Amino acid sequence: MCGIVGYVGYQNAVDILLDGLKHLEYRGYDSSGIALMSNGEIKVYKALGKLQNLVDTMKKEKITSCNTGIGHIRWATHGLPTLANAHPHSCNCKGLTLVHNGIIENYQEIKETLIKNGAIFKSQTDTEVAAQLIAFEYGKTNDLVQAVSSAVSKLKGAWAFCVMHKNEPETIVATRKNAPLLIGAGENENFLSSDIAAIIKYTKKAIYLNDGQITKISKDKIQIFNEDLTPASNRMEILPFEAHSLSKMGYKHFMLKEIHEQPDVVRNILQDKIKDEISDIALNGVNLDINSLKKINRIQIIACGTSLHAGLVGKYVIEDLTGIPVSVEASSEYIYRRSIADENTLVIGISQSGETADTITAIKQVKEKGAHVLIITNRKESLLSRLSDSLFHINAGIEVSVAATKSYTAQLVSIYLLGIFIAQTLNMDKKRIQEIKHELLTLPSKLEAVLSGELTIKKLAKKYSGFKNFIFIARGINYPTALEGALKLKEISYINATGYPAGELKHGPIAMLDETMPVLAILNKGIVYDKVMSNCEEAYARQAKLIGVANEIDERHKELFDDFVIIPPVSDIVSPALNVTVLQLFAYFIAEYLGKDVDQPRNLAKSVTVE
Ligand code: AGP
Q1: 403 in contact with ligand 1, CB cutoff 6 A
Q2: Mutation test residue for ligand 1: of 194, 195, 306, the one with most atoms within 8 Å of CB
Q3: Distance of CA 164 to CAs 14, 71, 173, 219, Å?
Q4: To 5 degrees, how large is the angle CA 496–CA 502–CA 508?
Q5: pLDDT at 187 over 70
Q6: Which residues are catalytic?
Q7: Is the C-beta atom of 400 inside 6 A of ligand 1?
Q8: How far is the CA of 326 from the centre of ligand 1 (A)?
Q9: What SS3 state is found at 54?
Q10: Which atom of ligand 1 lies nearest, measured to the CA of 353?
């Protein structure tokens, strides 16, 4: 996690660094800091808590004449969120300063050696160890690139570093391994950042560093070196995003804006893939043909959090359409057991950010076993994308809110398309494929209908905002929707919510039901409607307050419900993509009503780059 940014150019570095950090706030927000280099001197400024505290500090400093600096926003891994632990970190003589994203696993043993050599440590962080180590190596060569190279060769773990040394003015040296870092190329100015978001306002030209590469940037020069310090010439890429995707566009929070973007996000994905209900769909980037698919005897889906919930929907969709057995597992669990993936396995990794460390590790493992790796991600330039044999770019635009919304819906639609693609390639049930295509093509307008009814959900959220616990129930393909709705509520309102398969209620959770425990039931008209309704009867009999999310509620059942939200009719298989919007809005309005920090909930970061 954490966000890093670097700048060398002609503009005021303070403004660029603070603005860059603002756009990286979703990566962490325990503390922040910047280091500025001018006149052969490096000065470090830090603040605890939100970035605004650093902005206020820097306003008082009134620095306008510095054009080189590095910045950091922290999500604590080693050591408490204190000023001493905040980045940037320096060596003892303060000649060298760096910022770091990642975890250095062997920092304790290196620290002990450095202490024996006279280093004095002021923080509990692994990062300060890196600063002292690079400074130690610099003492041998007086060359920052060489010092960084020999220091990182001694490290284990994951890192992206931006390093400045007072003897190398108007220069930043940076390197990365298993953590993201890109160079933004400008006119008479260059940038470094852990994410496009920090630099997109200034340049659309970017160069991605490969694992182990080192770069040295000044305002008019970018040098890149391979791990063995031979010169490298990486490709310049044009960034796909527009700066306006980083604006709230009049909405109170990014989360609400992103929920409202969902109809267009779905239209965008479908646009160049489904022409009509009859024609075959084309998925550029998915390198699977009839011969490779005939070999596949199992599919494994690996993901975390919200992406894992999309994967659970994927199991229903792909098994229904293709008959191929699908298992779904949290990446963090997959890593630590014997994997049975082999060359006849299709492994689908799902990740909005493409940076999630657990998913990256799991995918690296299955690649070694010869499985075909298909990545579904919102970041086609990400580490996971680079590991893929097939890539499905969901193209949902930058998602700023820590709580994933539009990326989830886009992942779901991608999974429907992938299921259709596999089924059509294997010549399976054409009629079923046509039905699903029809449902997908009508999904954007149904999403708009749900969004236009948001006032009802807002009123409901206010009514239920005082409850401390919720149970969300559903069956079949909407069980993951219940999990996702509960996760959204937990993430942004800190209210305890649990998702259950409705049939499991009577196997334990029913013991908790009384008038203090609302039950939200997802009841689409379909094969499980009557079954879920029976479970609602059971909850009603225990005095639980019942909220129904349904296409319609029969007259005879209406009295069971304290409240319901009626959404447009939709087929069972596509219903998760519609139902989830109601739950996203419900979670959003409760958190907003309770005055929570919706876009940056406590303890969370958008990209979880540590295992
Ligand atoms: C979603 O609201 C969460 N912030 C979180 O569960 C997230 O989905 C998870 O960390 C996985 O992230 P990824 O999709 O970027 O891999």
Answers
A1: yes
A2: 306
A3: 15, 11, 7, 14
A4: 70
A5: yes
A6: 2, 606
A7: no
A8: 21
A9: helix
A10: 15
By residue count, the chain amounts to 611
561-598 residue pLDDT tens:
999 999 999 999 999 999 999 999 999 999 999 999 99
Residue 98 to residue 254: CA distance in whole angstroms: 31
Peptide bond into 88 cis (omega under 30): yes
Q: Cα(474)–Cα(601) distance, rounded to whole angstroms? A: 26
Residue nearest ligand 1's atom 5 by CA: 305
Model confidence at 275, pLDDT cuts 50, 70, 90, reads confident
495 CA to centre of ligand 1 in angstroms:
18
Distance CA 57, CA 390 (A): 47
The CB-based long-range contact list for 45-53 (8 Å cut-off, 24+ gap) reads 46/83, 46/86, 46/87, 46/88, 47/83, 47/86, 48/81, 48/82, 48/83, 48/86, 49/81, 50/25, 51/18, 51/21, 51/22, 51/25
Cα distance between residue 381 and residue 385, in whole Å: 6
| Residue 183 near residue 215 (C-beta atoms within 8 A) | yes
Q: What is the pLDDT of residue 63?
A: 84
Contact 301, 348 (CB under 8 A): yes
The token duo for 607 is 């990209």
Q: Does the beta carbon of 584 lie inside 6 Å of ligand 1?
A: no
**In this structure, which residue's CA is closest to atom 4 in ligand 1?**
403
435 alpha carbon – ligand 1 mean position (Å): 31
